[in-house]
Design a protein that fits this description.
Elements: E1 3-4, E2 11-12, E3 17-18, E4 23-26, E5 31-34, E6 57-61, E7 65-69, H1 77-103, H2 107-132, E8 134-140, E9 143-150, E10 153-160, E11 164-175, E12 178-187, E13 193-195, H3 201-223
Antiparallel strand pairs: 1-2, 3-4, 4-5, 6-7, 7-8, 8-9, 9-10, 11-12, 12-13
Length: 225
């Protein structure tokens, strides 16, 4: 079984895996990761049934199509609150300074505050995404489509299903230097697609199993003579 780094998707060799200490060291990232939650790219994850009370919607026709819709927002409440407070604080200061600079006739001051206002716009968009963003996944025998939608704005990522090497938990972000994991779709090239970091551990494991199972069935169907 190969163990892959949850950050860069590089294979971690056996000599860099310490089972006794429960640590795998990635030389590419120059960082160690706990073995708990790391799954080999070519290993089958444990089967997990749908957790009771989950708001995640899964529509599956085994081997033909799979659709997953995450609940609105989909990030931890603490992240939502922090993003909102930061956006309000940053925009309150930067736009107050911008108005004062605009009242002045000097262009130097006006140009100086532009980057800070842009950061404020990005922070505000991030806060809106934390509360109202929608994440969805669609797979058939040929393609994987990830979609992130906020109001009328949509971002899509399309990958051929043959590009998938495995499905496992992968690092989504860090909070106080502690890695937070989401559902990771590992690819032959590039970093894994990671989503659902705000879901419960059982929901993440369930989605890992659902995606892995569909991918395996779809591969078998394509290879069937």
């Amino acid at each position: 079984m190969r163990v892959v780094c949850p950050r860069c998707n590089e294979v971690i060799p056996a000599e860099d895996i310490n089972v006794r200490e429960n640590v795998a060291f990635c030389r590419a990232c120059d960082e160690g990761f706990p073995l708990d939650g790391l799954v080999g790219a070519d290993a089958a994850p444990e089967r997990v049934e749908k957790p009771p009370g989950t708001a995640v919607i899964v529509d599956s026709d085994p081997g033909r199509h799979l659709a997953i819709m995450l609940p609105t927002g989909g990030v931890p409440c603490g992240i939502k609150v922090f993003a909102t407070i930061f956006a309000l604080f940053w925009n309150g200061i930067s736009w107050s300074v911008a108005v004062a600079a605009w009242m002045d006739d000097g262009w130097t001051g006006r140009l100086f505050v532009i980057p800070f206002c842009l950061i404020g716009v990005i922070a505000f968009a991030a806060a809106l995404w934390a509360w109202f963003g929608r994440t969805s996944l669609a797979m058939d025998r040929s393609n994987l489509i990830m979609q992130w939608r906020l109001f009328g704005f949509t971002r899509r990522k399309l990958r051929p299903i043959e590009d998938i090497t495995g499905v496992a938990l992968a690092e989504a972000y860090r909070e106080n230097d502690v890695p937070r994991y989401g559902v990771g779709i590992h690819l032959k090239s590039g970093s894994p697609i990671v989503f659902g970091s705000g879901l419960s551990d059982e929901e993440k494991k369930w989605l890992v199993w659902e995606i892995h199972d569909f991918h395996a069935r779809a591969a078998s169907a394509r290879n069937w003579p």
